[in-house]
Design goal:
This protein is mainly β. 3% of the residues lie in helices and 36% in strands.
Length: 150
């Protein structure tokens, strides 16, 4: 579970929310500011709302650094490093629903079940992205996308 944000001058993130369960990098979560927590997006109804945040944690297991980084998961009740995107931001993630071969350049995608990207279908989500390319992260299929709407 990995992600890369392609904004070289933007190192800001939200770091005061804890995970409610094991949370992989590269998914979107629903923040609960009242309880200082964040939960992976459950379904398309939750995914269509505004205010979703992107999980972009660093591997905290130094002894495992660069070994299985793609599989690093933040444990429950740990602080998350979260990013709120703006239109034009570009990122890559290996977290998507479906097969990589179903995604093409210029397809419009949105957050879906599990906080993963998926085809937008007939939905009208607040947060949408355009596929820039299919690529790989740590040897796993990934999508590089640009934010269209927030």
């Amino acid at each position: 579970m990995s992600a890369i944000i392609n904004q070289s001058t933007d190192n800001t993130y939200i770091a005061n929310l804890k995970s409610t369960g094991p949370t992989p990098n590269g998914i979107f979560v629903t923040p609960d500011y009242a309880n200082q927590s964040a939960t992976p997006v459950v379904d398309n109804t939750a995914a269509d709302k505004s205010g979703l945040l992107f999980v972009y944690n660093q591997n905290t297991h130094i002894d495992q650094e660069l070994v299985a980084d793609a599989d690093f998961i933040v444990p429950a009740d740990s602080y998350l490093r979260l990013k709120q995107f703006l239109p034009g931001h570009v990122f890559a993630t290996d977290q998507f629903n479906g097969d990589i071969t179903t995604f093409n350049k210029n397809d419009v995608v949105a957050v879906g079940a599990g906080g993963k990207l998926e085809a937008i279908g007939s939905r009208s989500p607040a947060l949408s992205f355009i596929v820039k390319e299919t690529t790989t992260l740590y040897g796993k299929p990934a999508l590089k996308v640009q934010v269209l709407t927030v």
